[in-house]
Amino acid sequence: MSNVKWTDEQKQAIYEKNTNILVAAAAGSGKTAGLVERIINKIIKDNVDIDKLLVVTFTNAAASEMKQRVLDAIYKKLNENPENENLQKQILLLNKANICTIDSFCLDVVRNNFFELKNVSPNFRIADTAEIDILEQEVIEDIFEQKYDNQDKDFLELINTYTSYKDDSPLKDLILKIVKAISSMPFPEKWLDEHIEMFNLENRLEEDFSNTPWGHILLEDIEEEITDDLEILKNLKKELQDQLDLEKVQIVIGQDINNLEILKANINNWDKAFTTFQTMTFEKWPRINANNEFKEEAKEIRDSVKKKFKAKLEKILLSDSKQSNLDIYDMYKILKKLQNLILEFKLQFSKKKQEKNIVDFSDIEHFALEILLKEDDNNNLVKTDVAKRYQEKFVEIAIDEYQDSNLVQEYILTSVSKGNNVFMVGDVKQSIYKFRQARPQLFIEKYNKYKLEPEVGEDRKIQLFKNFRSRENVLNITNMVFEDIMSKELGDIDYNTNEYLNLGASYLEIPEQDYTTDIEIIDTSDEDNDIWKDEDSEQSVYIPLEEDSNAAEQERVEDVVLEARFVAKKIKELIDSKYQVIDKKEGKRNIRYKDIAILLRSITGIANVYEKEISMLGIPVYSDSSGEYLQSIEIETIMSLLRIINNPMQDIPLVTVMRSPIGNFTDNELIEIRLNDRNSNFYEALMKTDTPKVRKFLQLLEELRNDEQYMALDEWIWNIYTKTGYMNYVSLMPNGNLRVSNLKMLFERAKQYESASFKGLFNFINFIDKIKFNSEDLTSAKIIGENEDVVRIMSIHKSKGLEFPVVILAGVGKQFNMQDLNEKILLDQDLGLGPQYIDSERHIEFKTLAKKALAIKAKREAVSEEMRVLYVALTRPKEKLIIVGRQKDANKKITEKQKALEVYPSDDSKINAYLLQKYKTYLDWLELIYEKEGVAKTEKIFRVNVHNKKELLENLKKEEKIEEDIYQKIIENAKKANKEEKQKILEYLNWKYPHEEIEGVPTKTSVTKIKEMVNAEQVEEQTKNVKFAVEETKEVRAITQKPKFVNNNENAKISNAQKGTLMHLCVQKMNEKEEYTAEKIQELIDELKQREIISKTEAESINIGKLQGYTKSDLWQELKNAKEIHKEKAFYINVKASRMYDISKENDENILVQGIIDLYYIDKDGKLVLVDYKTDYVEEGKENELVEKYKEQLYLYKDALEKALNRKVDRMWIYSLYLNESIVIEK
User: Residue 541 — pLDDT band, cuts 50, 70, 90?
Assistant: First the structure.
């Protein structure tokens, strides 16, 4: 390494000493190489033994790599001077050198000083995460059961406050969440007590609320809002100065500015701000006859400012200081009860771990802290004798990836330092582990405090900004992006020319090769078929998104597939064009698959789609996807087998195993077994079936059940693989190596389980279920090495520390995950708890001001972290970066951003931070930068290309046509063969499946599925022969829409289809024997909301007028006098496929169709009437169009009802909720 040419800054990082040093090392700046050289320098030049250094790395892999690098460097020096005894000594000392993770160091401290701790055995075992999770559940279940038995009043109050009537899991989850969060605090119980005592405002109710930490943050947020609004209005007023015919408008805008400035002047006092806001009014917009185009634009800008201003302040300045303090204090008692329950859980959990003689990594850190620090008589923390011994031992403490440290680690490492011998390396712009309780503020505090040129004894800051990884084009886009968006407010650091990544790499320039970054936007817009249009919901172009809206666009399967296919084509183009990359060993060469990495913000549920689409083009690909292990088909099959050996009375696992290669039963055989007993469970039906195959299967189960009694679990599972031959079978399937490795991983899991404190098959099944539920340990088996020639798909987090010649950053149109802001209690390391105000007796619930303050801080931190994640992604490529994302109405949204930038000006060169927070995707940020910088400045750095979804699909069809042409060429070549060969080849090539026309016809379907098939573009050709329509809001939503429990955001925008569903729900809930006024309908809606059947936003979207109109209809009057009324009745009916599909008679088969009939009733004359509700938009006089659209569906319902009731349907109606009119259908 002595031949390396170090920069001046790197030399400082290598040789500086006798003070604390913080090295701010940007991406690709060679920080690891510099750290290794510093260690070598300490050993060789300063004659420091390597075991006198403590080097803390972030991962075990990094520690191993660093040890190897140090060893290689020592050997290199030893080759130059073979007689050097000091170097020989260092090789021996390297094995016990403290180059390790913080967990390993803490473990070493505890192992060597366990006698300093109470109730800790020296031979404790570190339990894995899944084992700890199961133990937590056991403990919390025991505590809850005991509390229920004792009818503990405090506990029952917590149950009523934090759980629904369904179950008590929300309270359990809340306790575990808080316990996990406070475990990153040096003193968890103390932290919890101090931050709950913050709510004890009993003696401070009269104080101004701005004196609380929450009030301070809220007023700061309001001040930012006012400052932004003033800037917008002042710019507007300036533009109006030349508009002489708009003088009245200027006056109104001037009054608005005056009002806001008065409020801003009083913003440091809560009561003054509250009073000012409550008395504040906006003047009416003046009526002006002037024919001035700017008049409407000015009104739109002013209205948008007024709207967002009121929306913000009405949520915060709700009450004066006394009431605000009282609302906070009201939560104190319930939080104290929650605290007591948490402390009881921690105590019982600790006892349980002691019984089992196990600890977790959090315990290790806190044990180490207890050994190294203690409180003196004045309650001040002082170093123990153990800490002083470590302090004497270590000449230097080096911390890698310092930006990812937490407070516990900071306390531990500070306790063993001399106060001037800590060397910290990191990059706060790459701090992306907040979910692991990382605290980047530790880095930032030192970054702001330490000096570049300190006096003697002062702490030093060294900046490494030369990037030795990437070409200039990659650095240019990175610098442009983050100079525009990263600031102290968002991103925690002011990214300016001092923070720029400077070119340090020397690359051979390849003429005519394009290095410009491409931002590829796939416009996923479809035709707008929505009905029930709400014109008031149209959003102003000046407001990009509502402040607290987190309504992520639905992930549509076909759009994800389209993006994945687009990325696959890009890879193929790079390979086919023989794109050139520079290799350190080979020099210039053609690009290979392993040179390409696809980075995604999250790979869950998406990586497998990319993998499939890329594989279809014959490209080798690998993704470290979380769905490839416990959720793989081979593991699911074996787990199903374990379940039925443990308890065969489980139909789904039993049929799974029987249908798998283990049982090898056909569908017809399974049907025959079921027909032996239609009413009992499937195992009982199986026991009543006497065939050789069944006897053999039951014998296998019995043998395996007997084996389990005397074999160790891991041995028994391997015995299953052998006896069933299942491992051999999966080895022959596609990706056989991976599948075999997955089975081996399950075997290893069983071995770990046996070595732990749990026993038995039942517990093992629960153990695996727990791992699956928590999405832990789901990484698939590793079957490729780092040199395998495959395209890699990984998350941005996984890519940190890696580099690739070409990076495709995909999925940039996916919205940021802000779901944590919807939790009942928010947590913050500084502010503590932000609870929801809940009064279970009065059924009152709302966000406390404390929660709103924490939400503001949490959102800023989340946006800052997303910014840093983007920085990590953009700094991975060495030569070429491609960015791909999906967006609806892309061109329109780009134009809107131009106007947004005009409305939200900024004092400096950066994009307004307030504006940035309103957008929710990386793509939005990139578009803002594109509009801000302008094409002239960006065209040499990056290009924005918008692709129409329809055109992309058409191109795919053209490619399929090309494949057909290739087929024709094959036939032409075949003509050169002799007659017999020709005939044979043509027979093979022209062979067609005889029943091709029914390939896409299902054996079982639902009325709704048919509609989904009609709407799905990707199966248009398959379903073009579907004969009748089905209403979109019927029964269940489309399969590509996320379920309600995922989208439980209170503020999510209600789609028109959802509005139709809500109308259906209300109609079904109304009692026809009662009279309904508008007030009574509102009571019904409120009840649905109270019972959590619908959300507040959904409730507000229901059209009460339409429902009241329904109660005045002829249908309603008939129902009032009806003898019987039946609603929402499910049915199954066998129908001929030709009824719904255009197929020939010889291929006509039965299809099992399921559906739900909205309503049927027996009228006062005893006639059977069938009714279907529709919410479609219908023009008056065109009712027949509705009848034609849905009559076949009604006939299907009619047939099902007649078969079920064994009587004729006398009348069929469609009731149009849009027209409030009954439409009779006649056959």
Answer: very low
Distances (CA, A) of 770 to 376, 777, 1069: 43, 10, 38
- pLDDT at site 532: 32
State residue 164's pLDDT score. 72
Higher-pLDDT residue of 752 and 823 is: 823
Give the pTM: 0.75
**Residue 1146 and residue 996: Cα distance in Å, rounded?**
12
Give kind and range of the element (H or E) at residue 1168. Answer: strand 1168-1174
Angle at 36 between CA 31 and CA 40, to 5 degrees: 145
Q: Which of 471, 582, 484 has the alpha carbon at shortest distance from 871? A: 484
Per DSSP, what are the bridge partners of residue 1225? 1212
Contact 186, 407 (CB under 8 A): yes
- Helices 60-80, 31-44: axis angle to 10 degrees equals 50
Strands 587-590 and 580-583: antiparallel
Q: In what order do the strands lie in the sheet with 844-847?
A: 825-828, 832-839, 844-847
Alpha helices in 241-372 (DSSP H): 247-265, 270-278, 293-316, 321-330, 332-356, 361-372
pLDDT at 591 over 70: yes
Cα–Cα nearest to 42, from 3, 95, 99, 108: 99
**Can you tell me the distance from the alpha carbon of 1131 to that of 1065, in angstroms, rounded to the nearest whole number?**
19
Count CA atoms closer than 13 A to 406's CA, side-chain side: 22
Cα–Cα distance measured from residue 818 to residue 434, given in angstroms and rounded to the nearest whole number: 13
DSSP 401: S
Listed residue (892, 723, 715, 873) closest to 804, CA to CA: 873
Task: Give the sign of the dihedral formed by CA 111, CA 115, CA 121, CA 127.
Answer: negative
Helix (H, G, I), strand (E, B) or coil at 880: strand
- Dist. CA 188–CA 343, nearest whole Å: 10
Burial 526-550 (b: 16+ CB within 10 A, else e): eeeeebbeeeeeeebbbbbeebbeb
Element counts in the chain: helices (H) and strands (E): 47, 30
Q: Beta 1150-1162 vs 1168-1174: how paired, if at all?
A: antiparallel
Place of tokens 């259906």: 1064
**pLDDT band at 1028; cut points 50, 70, 90:** very low
Tell me which DSSP letter residue 288 carries: -
Per-residue pLDDT at 846 exceeds 90: no
Q: What share of the chain is helix, strand, coil (3-state, %, to 5)?
A: 55, 15, 35
1133-1152 CB burial, b ≥16 within 10 A, e <16: beeebbebbebeeeeeeebe
Query: Does the pLDDT value for residue 1092 go beyond 90?
Result: no
